[in-house]
């Protein structure tokens, strides 16, 4: 299975936990983390995760209402029902799983630290 299909399957699994009696889902996003999510020149959400959620909406026949919300407030936003889901390049943690369901990882990121090598000055 190619990577795009794996990503779609992972996100469909996440979204399938919702009751599809709803026709529209409110998706919170903090569009400050390109290429995952950002605002385009017209102020509309764009990015990798935005495209995936839109694709799922098309496949599962529901509409999406994006709301610009602060990422740091995601716990309150989800628990008080201000949004049905939140996309913002989250990593999975035990603390987050106590509050919300999460999809399988859709990307693997390896972080590194750069530093000056004094021997090569």
From TrEMBL:
Signal peptide: 1-21
Signal is among the record's keywords: yes
One Pfam assignment: SBP_bac_3
Keywords: Signal
Membrane-traversing stretches: none
Top-rank taxon: Bacteria
Residue ranges annotated for the Solute-binding protein family 3/N-terminal domain, each copy included: 26-117
InterPro entries: Solute-binding_3/MltF_N
Keyword Signal: yes
Protein family membership: Belongs to the bacterial solute-binding protein 3 family.
Name of protein: Probable ABC transporter arginine-binding protein ArtJ
């Amino acid at each position: 299975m190619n990577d795009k299909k794996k990503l779609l399957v992972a996100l469909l699994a996440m979204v399938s936990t919702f009751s599809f009696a709803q026709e529209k889902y409110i998706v919170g996003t903090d569009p400050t983390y390109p290429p995952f999510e950002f605002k385009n020149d017209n102020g509309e959400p764009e990015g990798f995760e935005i495209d995936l959620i839109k694709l799922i909406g098309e496949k599962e026949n529901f509409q999406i209402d994006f709301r610009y919300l602060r990422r740091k407030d995601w716990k309150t936003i989800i628990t008080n029902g201000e949004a049905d889901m939140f996309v913002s390049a989250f990593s999975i943690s035990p603390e987050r799983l106590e509050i919300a369901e999460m999809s399988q990882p859709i990307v693997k990121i390896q972080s590194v630290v750069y530093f000056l090598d004094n021997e090569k000055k």
